[in-house]
Design goal:
alpha+beta; Alpha-Beta Plaits; Endonuclease, Chain A; 9-stranded mixed beta sheet; 18 strands; about 30% helix; elongated
């Protein structure tokens, strides 16, 4: 039996580890070693089945308390990693952490079977695993970039954790966490040392059209803003606040379908709340005469029954009583409010849904003329440039916007 190194190849490397195995042995007490061995075999069997089913991956090595596996496709590797966590989620003793990276590696084989993997990407997969906690999966940006394009958004959500130090001389590791929306929450913090991004702000402000990934991006013109607004609503979760936004963007069918309808149909968004400027009568006219009728039309088109409650300066529409999903609005005097118009997604404390905060700050609008239902014409403002903000280096900005939204929370109908 001769071990021979092969030529390099590109693979997804998966590291898996039974978290807290030493403490588990101690808890098991007398006979703990034998019991632990039984648990380890159970773990190995679950992982082996998930990895190798349909020839998706290859289990190449045991690390004692875990395994190393290889895949060819990042999307399949992430899906099988989450499957492992699904199967072990309610296990009383076995809790595993999983790390993934993809890139060029060198394999060692024995008697025609792969027995080990070498190279930076194997090291980085192991490092991603150590950043995770039991029940969670951490992947590098390379895995995220490929896998997120192919996995169903309803089945897999992502949290960007930012960059983490590896070891002196190595580049930082940008880490993402895939998770099951509605079933699990992502980690608030990883276990390693987070690295602050010291790059100049101008280098982070990449246009959305460039294809770059940035925590802050200026999006324009209107067509791109509409696409970004649709993505904001389709992929978001938690409570969505619209603060003093120009209602023109949601007051006619095309804009409604791009901005508000995706949020109404996204079961992961539990609250949609509008803080509207009551000092301008035109805002009330647009809301009552254009936006709310479009909500009624959407409900009729999709076969939904809405429970509507209206008061002079506020109101609520129950979208789904069982899930406690609502659309609500309040009119307040914002004439002396200097905060810019924005949309915000934050955690809903009344829901178990995991949330990644993000925001759209409206930079400019364009005028458009529409017909009101009474037959008169009206000039509306539609957004034609927004600043898209995601959680990471700009948590302070998101916290400030959340503080503004919270000022009016008590006014919304219960």
């Amino acid at each position: 039996m001769v071990e021979t190194p092969s030529d390099t190849c590109v693979r997804v490397v998966l590291f898996d580890d039974m978290r807290g195995s030493t403490a588990l042995r101690e808890r098991l007490g007398r006979g703990g070693d034998q019991t632990f061995e039984t648990l380890r075999r159970e773990h190995d069997g679950i992982v082996r089945e998930a990895v190798t089913r349909d020839g998706a991956g290859e289990l190449i090595k045991s690390t004692g308390d875990g395994v190393i596996a290889l895949f060819e496709k990042p999307s399949v590797a992430v899906a099988r990693a989450l499957e492992i966590q699904d199967r072990l989620r309610d296990h009383p003793h076995i809790h595993v952490r999983i790390g993934l990276d993809v890139g060029e590696v060198k394999l060692a084989s024995m008697d025609g079977h792969t027995v080990d993997v070498f190279g930076r990407h194997a090291d980085w997969a192991a490092r991603a695993m150590t950043l995770a906690d039991g029940g969670h999966v951490c992947v590098t940006r390379a895995v995220y970039t490929d896998a997120a394009s192919w996995l169903d958004d309803d089945a897999v959500a992502w949290k960007a954790h930012g960059s983490y130090a590896v070891k002196p001389g190595d580049p930082e590791l940008e880490v993402y966490e895939p998770y099951r929306p509605g079933a699990t929450r992502p980690l608030r913090r990883l276990r390693g040392e987070k690295v602050a991004d010291a790059r100049p702000a101008r280098r982070r402000r990449m246009p959305a059209a460039s294809g770059g990934v940035s925590t802050v991006a200026v999006v324009r013109p209107w067509e791109a803003v509409a696409r970004d607004g649709r993505e904001f609503a389709q992929k978001g979760a938690g409570a969505m606040y619209w603060f003093r936004v120009p209602l023109g963007g949601v007051s006619y069918p095309e804009g409604f379908r791009s901005f508000l309808e995706p949020a109404l149909e996204n079961a992961r968004i539990t609250k949609v709340r509008f803080v509207l400027d009551g000092s301008h009568e035109a805002i009330r006219q647009v809301w009552d005469g254009l936006v709310l009728p479009l909500v009624d039309e959407w409900a009729a088109r999709t076969g939904r029954e809405l429970e509507v409650r209206r008061e002079p300066d506020r109101g609520r529409v129950v979208l789904d009583a069982e899930r406690r999903r609502t659309l609500a609005w309040v009119f307040v005097d914002l004439s002396r409010e200097f905060t810019p118009c924005f949309k915000l997604l934050v955690e809903d404390l009344d829901s178990e849904e995991a949330t990644e905060s993000s925001a759209q700050i409206f930079l400019s609008t364009a005028a458009r003329t529409v017909w009101l239902r009474d037959g008169t014409q009206h000039v509306i403002r539609i957004p034609d440039a927004v600043l898209r903000v995601r959680a990471a280096e700009h948590d302070a900005l998101l916290h400030a916007l959340n503080g503004v939204a919270n000022q009016w929370d008590s006014l919304f109908p219960a």
